[in-house]
Amino acid sequence: MIVVVNSTMGSSLPSNAIPVISDYFQIISPSAQILPISMYLFGYVMGPFLFGPLSEAYGRRSIMIGSFFFYTIFTMACALAPNFPALLIFRLLVGINASSPISVTGGIYADIYNDPVTRGRAMAVFMGATCVGPMTAPLISGFIAPALSWRWVFWVGLIVAGASWLPLLWLPETYGPVLLSHRAARLRKTSQNPNIFAPFDLEKKGWKQMATVTLTRPLRMLIFELIVSATCIYLSLIYGIFYMYFQAYPIIFEGIYHQSPGIAGLMFLPIGGGAVLSIFVFLWYDGFLRRAQAQHKSWTEKEESRRLPLAFIGGPLLVLGLFWLGWTSRPSIPFYVPMLAGIPFGTGFVLVFMALLNYLTDAYDIFAASAMGAASGSRSVAGAVLPFAAKPMYNKLGVPWASSLLGFLSLAMCIIPWIFLWQGQRLRDRSRFCIFLKEKKIKELEELERQRTRPRASTEGVSRVGGGEEKV
């Protein structure tokens, strides 16, 4: 969560410093002024297709530590950028490395929490934390950039990243196959038996395997897995709208209400409040679900009933927030009225993410990091591209109808969780990845049953370490 707060804060860190950066580098083009944020999000596009699968090949810890190291280095490089092109290159590089925790965390939680209940609660708190960074960043840039300089905005980001290293150094490895590989290595050393291997050690590796199987997995899931592709479409839209707000809020609160950049940055706080509120909504629903399961209600046995109802609540709330913001943003209405529209928007935004990302994690198990990588990469495309349309759209349509257009699109997306509820089991039954996971679990249970019913044999040959014991 600490690493993700850094990552998401970095995405919007220069948002309210754009005018100062533009003046310093003499950037006049409105499209070019959006690039410090968009280049970061373009980095988000590349990273998940790299870090998610690599964490399934080399373990979670090494990927998280390595990527955060380069995130820290390139954040410092942004503060020292000698010119605008250099700043954009550094923002791209820092964005690539910042995408690692977004795509790997789902896999980490799938590793740690076998119980879907506990995993769902952990993911809920995690998703709430992802909104902390984007909401605090406009405050930092809005007050620091005019008072000190735009470089100090990135120095503050570097200070936060440096402080985050202390707990990060104690991050353990969580990926089961890699843990077994480490155990096999220890056994080879202590027993002086060179023939002890984990199943992970016997898998095909190399650049060809990585290029054709590992690194293409998120892309294959995005194209061929209907659950993943539909989820990506929904999340991409609302994620793009979220980053359009960094262009829309200055139009509304600086343009209509004549606020300073720092005060306009405070207008984002209700979105963060809505994100916190979403955690309580999740916990309420989680308790309701647990009571229903204890009473053996038939609907609780369906996989889709566990998390998707949160999206049934979140989707309409997000739509409400968009229409509320659009039709109350006018000089005759006090600024706090459209400001409070951030509460239903933030609540709905996080609830939809909670529901759909938890659904992906539950459905794809050990491939959760790749599924999350596909979701992260696709929504980052929307987050990087849609802000370019924000100013032209709001200027041409006006604030009410521009927000309404986004509201109608979000309303259309609300049907996706209902389709999952209706056809989710059939979609999983046809999924190649879900079929593989089902067959894998059956084989593991059969192997455990064979070991339980037969005496330990003492034979020579290759020993495979797995399931907490040596399998001969």
Task: Describe, in plain words, how this protein is organized in 3D.
With 472 residues, the protein is mostly helical. It has a single domain (2-183, 202-434), classed as MFS general substrate transporter like domains (Growth Hormone, Chain: A), CATH 1.20.1250.20. Helices cover 80% and strands 2% of the residues. It has 24 helices and 3 strands. The protein has helices spanning 2-12, 18-25, 30-46, 48-58, 60-79, 84-112, 116-130, 132-147, 150-168, 176-191, 199-202, 207-214, 217-224, 226-256, 261-266, 269-294, 304-307, 309-328, 336-339, 342-364, 368-385, 387-413, 415-429, 432-453, and strands at 196-197, 463-466, 469-471. A 3-stranded mixed beta sheet has the order 1-2-3. Strand 2 and strand 3 (469-471) form a beta hairpin. Helix 4 (48-58) runs antiparallel to helix 5 and helix 14 (226-256) packs across helix 22 (387-413). The chain is globular. Mean pLDDT is 80; it is low at 457-463 and 467-472. The chain crosses the membrane at residues 32-51, 63-82, 88-110, 122-146, 152-171, 222-246, 266-287, 308-327, 333-359, 366-389, 401-422. It is found in: Membrane. Residues 1-425 form the Major facilitator superfamily (MFS) profile domain.
